[in-house]
Recover the amino acids of this structure.
């Protein structure tokens, strides 16, 4: 994606553009020139449509890139740290599982709060994962991480359902009275 012709003075537009690019795993090779491996959509038109839906301006040039020279290939390979991504998958998966193993011993309100924050961090990691292909990352490890996030989400939903069940039912008369006073 080449963004050189796009205005940089509008900070909100620049933030939205960069967010769209990061959400799809693009990294900036050179100023205003963003790349990612070709493994998330069937063709460039589909990537272009996803980027536009996420907020990339239609004036950006979205195209395929092939036959890079060796120095540029090396620079592209250095844009993502596959080892760190793999370590992140493993660490988060272990953190989620460790927490789940002890969650039943927590008071329900503490479990609900902790599951909200821990799950939110894991979902954020998943949403911003660049979804790199092998051999850049360990794809089975990433899939195991994704599966653990789904399992944690299901457990978190069950915890929150139990938490809501512990709350007293609202009294309609007192609720109406509070609404009139305010």
């Amino acid at each position: 994606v080449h963004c050189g012709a796009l205005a940089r003075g509008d900070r909100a537009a620049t933030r939205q553009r960069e967010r769209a690019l990061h959400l799809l795993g693009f990294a900036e090779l050179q100023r205003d020139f963003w790349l990612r491996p070709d493994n998330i959509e069937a063709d460039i038109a589909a990537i272009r449509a996803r980027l536009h839906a996420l907020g990339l301006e239609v004036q950006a040039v979205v195209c395929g890139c092939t036959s890079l020279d060796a120095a540029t290939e090396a620079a592209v390979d250095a844009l993502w740290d596959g080892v760190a991504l793999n370590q992140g998958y493993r660490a988060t998966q272990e953190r989620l599982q460790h927490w789940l193993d002890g969650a039943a011993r927590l008071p329900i309100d503490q479990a609900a709060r902790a599951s909200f924050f821990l799950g939110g961090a894991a979902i954020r990691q998943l949403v911003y994962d660049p979804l790199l292909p092998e051999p850049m990352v360990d794809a089975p490890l990433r899939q195991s991480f994704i599966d653990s996030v789904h399992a944690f989400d299901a457990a978190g939903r069950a915890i929150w359902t139990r938490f809501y069940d512990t709350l007293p039912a609202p009294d309609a008369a007192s609720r109406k009275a509070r609404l009139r006073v305010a």
